[in-house]
Design goal:
- It comes from Pseudorhodoferax soli.
- InterPro entries: HotDog_dom_sf, MaoC-like_dom.
- Residues 21-116 form the MaoC-like domain.
- This protein has 3 helices and 5 strands, in the order βαααββββ.
- The protein is 23% helix and 31% strand.
- It has one domain (13-137): Thiol Ester Dehydrase, Chain A.
- By secondary structure, the protein is α+β, with helices and mostly antiparallel strands.
- It has helices spanning 25-35, 45-50, 60-74; strands spanning 18-19, 80-87, 98-109, 112-122, 128-137.
- The longest helix has 15 residues, at 60-74.
- The two termini are 13 Å apart.
- β4 and β5 (128-137) form a beta hairpin.
- A 5-stranded antiparallel beta sheet has the order 1-3-4-5-2, with helices on one face.
Length: 138
Amino acid sequence: MSTPSFAATQVGDALPPLALAPITRTTLALFAGASGDHNQIHIDIDYARKAGMADVFAHGMLSMAYLGRLLTQWADQRQLRSFGVRFTGITHLGHQITCTGKVVEKFEVDGEQRVKLEIETRNQYGETRIVGDAVVAL
């Protein structure tokens, strides 16, 4: 990985997008096992239907993990200073998520050069599922 430099990074620059395979039941089962989040709404169709949903749906933290991957493919994880999101929609089975980000600010804190990024996930229909921001030291 070649970390971008502060001097070469400009406000408006886009991170290389991260396009993911469609969400499947296997994806949800593997994430449940890896994360320890076995909430039935994400893995048990009968439970999901009793809760008023048509089917199970992805863990919000799965999409946040995808955004973390977007960030760490752009810069080393040791350079991440903050990372937060707001969930704006449900990621359903079959949704193909694309993670994107762009530089919105350049600044310095205690002599450390940093950039603020706006990040988001969208499904194949262009619907935003998560919005957030991150600060990365460059």
